[in-house]
């Protein structure tokens, strides 16, 4: 028998497997007007189907993975998306120059000879119109104002009429951009300003709508697939409630929350909407679901969603292949009763972000070392980068989509934990620590989640893994054993080579440990407790597989130096440790402590980005919480405020400038 789920899970296997029968005659050549992981994902299926591919790229993406994967590549402009990937004239020139018969654009395949925006794309791309159509199709909708909100004062009046809280969002938006929650009039004014600016920047359309915000809901979406012959299917649901700033972080299929009746009702309404707009492709109908399983239409995405792999895993369907078949005019191959739920799949979005800042502010840099955990079973990684790739301020900071699959949810979660521990990413700050904490949290494991999961679980912000007594001892013992291994390797240790007295510093604590070695096993004693550490001790490898008191742990040594400083990734989180000999620790106690910089008078950029506005000048007085400037990163605008009441001493930035993380923006007296 042929395992279709495995076919879709393992990229190496997928690329090598032939079709079970001859591939259908579709297109000879497709131009893919996307970049990054989704462009690579589409190319894999195209190549499997015998279709030639054309990549488009900006000048800074000339060496990108999707460019190398394609049969042909065309440069369509400079780095900013508005001048390259969203430059329709340049893309159409590329279509004509290469002779492509179809274009993958906005997540769909459009036949070149009929290149236009269909009614479905127009209608569902506009949140105002889509809501009206959904109502007409008897799809449950959220109460709100159905027209365009034109002014700040109109926004306040509408919000008051609807009743707080409200959601202000871009009519043409998506991906969490141009969305703000407002709980009062002042937040409505601020939300209107930022949402309209983000909408104009991201979509070239600053129209906004306002609707009732459903507090503490789940975000559950239905995958639909429709053809040009009036056939449509729903391919089960995806649970997408783990979010930050209205952007998804972890998704799974199916949902732990839905029963068969609710799943069917949501699926049928999703199909009703797809048929109402004569949609023909793969698409997603998103719903908010309250604690009583009441569900409300949120939006329809007329494209292949980021999280589509988990649907592929549990159904065995290649959604890209289905989209290409539909674009060519074929009827759907399946009926509703053919669509299964086989097993469980989980997707973690791996981003170049600092999770300690608002659950993830963008990071930039070059991937100095990169190793995906594809050596593990039931792991799929959809990425568009490789070792040496640059993560820039111009594009989405996603590194990859890490997907794991299992016969049960517990199996999928266990595989995800292993995959995150084995994922090697160097050169950029990443969110592995946050992802691992989410999928191992008791609330997530039990399925007790909502879109408020992150702020509820981490009300003071994400702080990384919090060590308990046992895990602290494990980390200290691993650091001590690694330090001695490195010392022995460099032959700098004299005297007894089987017993050492060390001092290990972790956070604010200093721990005295005794270490003995027998073969490759270290016994580390601290505070009267012994910890055994056994491992391969390959110091050249980025991965450090250890058995600590018989429990398998995968650590990563991120850095170490001659002064005994070691940075270890343990249980997903990076910890700074310092290991000293007993004598060195005694002498170190006489060293003067470095006085930390007073940062209360300095406003530094928390992320790389572009300065949008500066609201102050030297000599101005500012109140605590007053906006000083706005930084845009990855199309998201962030308001930076004064930490205290003060007078502005100097301003070191101006609108339009590019700033790096930590750059000084404004100095206060």
TrEMBL record:
Catalysed reaction, written as an equation: butanoyl-CoA + hydrogencarbonate + ATP = (2S)-ethylmalonyl-CoA + ADP + phosphate + H(+); propanoyl-CoA + hydrogencarbonate + ATP = (S)-methylmalonyl-CoA + ADP + phosphate + H(+)
Which GO CC terms are listed, alphabetically? mitochondrial matrix
Q: Where is the ATP-grasp domain?
A: 133-328
Q: Does the keyword Lipid metabolism apply?
A: yes
UniProt domain Lipoyl-binding: residue ranges: 594-669
Q: Which UniProt keywords apply?
A: ATP-binding, Biotin, Ligase, Lipid degradation, Lipid metabolism, Magnesium, Manganese, Metal-binding, Mitochondrion, Nucleotide-binding, Transit peptide
One Pfam match: Biotin_carb_C
- Please tell me the species this chain comes from: Cyclopterus lumpus
EC number(s) of the enzyme?
6.4.1.3
Kindly list the cofactors needed.
biotin
Q: What is this protein called?
A: Propionyl-CoA carboxylase alpha chain, mitochondrial
